[in-house]
Design brief:
Strands 2-1-3 form a 3-stranded mixed β-sheet. With about 325 residues, it is mainly alpha-helical. Helix 2 packs parallel to helix 10 and helix 4 packs antiparallel against helix 6. The termini are far apart. It is globular, with a radius of gyration of 21 Å. The protein has 11 helices and 3 strands, in the order H-E-H-H-E-H-H-H-E-H-H-H-H-H.
């Protein structure tokens, strides 16, 4: 039965409606998303390069940040090129294997980012609450294991959700009222009973949200208590400053995901779903490198040096 469903579903096609209900906005949206994607690619790849070439940034925090930039780059690259294509062509179809492949990568990178942000919160906790033993506590081996664990969580979640998705049947041409192959959008066009699958999705999203947020909240509770005990106002300001960028990234990312997957009634408005998807798929990967680079003097100085070197080489 399982193999039969896969065989029949493989012949199905999906139509990604995207923003086709706004024909006059197709060109402006294309230019807007192209600009955002360009900034995102340059920002995230630039952040990875800057961290790699500057020895001052060879610390656990920037090791995690380089992986966050890699995830954001991959995340946006999986979706935005297809979004741009659908804004300029009339045939917005995508085959079942292509749609499932897109979902697989989206799931892996989104869940990985969940836990990577939690790991970064733990890193900030160790840096602020135990600064003298920070280098020892956050060894290269431990950092590599923590990053590996975040990718494992993403892959495990993806495999589990895909196993439920593959049990559903799809026939013919199916209209997806979104610009990407998001899980609930795929499930909504299935001709099978989707109740159990929807409940599983909600449970997984809630578990990932709650578990990662618990790590973040506990870490920042200890950070807040430690910072408030500091006698110097300058010390408190510096400690809060090191956490501000991370807190901003957490608020934006988790706010979007919580609304989309953990609020049952949020599916009532597909326009709102599209807007939230744009935010966490398109906008957040652009914002993260800006958030972290604009508040860090070392990163900004490295960017300036790279820019000056490039200008000098162009003149030569």
């Amino acid at each position: 039965m399982f193999l039969t469903n896969i065989s029949k579903s493989a012949e199905a096609t999906f139509i990604l409606l995207g923003f086709s209900e706004y024909p006059k906005l197709q060109v402006p949206l294309f230019l807007l998303f192209l600009t955002i994607y360009t900034v995102s690619v340059v920002g995230n790849l630039g952040m990875i390069l800057v961290i790699k070439i500057n020895p001052k940034l060879h610390t656990p925090m920037y090791f995690f940040l380089s992986h966050l930039s890699f995830i954001d780059f991959c995340h946006s690259t999986v979706v935005i090129p297809k979004l741009l294509e659908n804004l300029v062509v009339e045939d917005r179809s995508i085959t079942f294997p292509e749609c499932i492949t897109q979902f697989i990568f989206i799931c892996i990178f989104v869940v990985t980012e969940f836990y990577l942000l939690a790991v970064m919160a733990y890193d900030r906790f160790v840096a602020v609450c135990n600064p003298l033993n920070y280098t020892t506590a956050m060894s290269q081996k431990l950092c590599a294991m923590l990053v590996g664990a975040t990718y494992f969580c993403g892959i495990f979640c993806c495999i589990t959700l895909c196993s439920f998705l593959m049990r559903l049947s799809f026939r013919g041409r199916n209209i997806i009222n979104n610009f990407l192959c998001e899980f609930d959008a795929i499930v909504s066009v299935s001709c099978s009973d989707i109740h159990v699958t929807q409940e599983i999705t909600f449970a997984f999203a809630t578990i990932n949200e709650v578990s990662s947020l618990m790590i973040i909240l506990i870490s920042y509770t200890y950070i807040f208590i430690t910072v408030m005990k500091m006698p110097s106002a300058g010390g408190r300001k510096k400690a809060f400053s090191t956490c501000a960028s991370h807190l901003t990234a957490i608020t934006i990312f988790h706010g979007s995901i919580f609304f989309l997957y953990c609020v049952p009634n949020s599916k009532n408005s597909w326009l709102m779903v599209k807007v939230v998807c744009v935010f966490y798929i398109v906008v957040i990967p652009m914002l993260n490198p800006l958030i972290y680079s604009l508040r860090n003097k070392v990163v900004k100085e490295t960017f300036r040096k790279l820019f000056r070197i490039q200008l000098y080489s162009d003149k030569i």
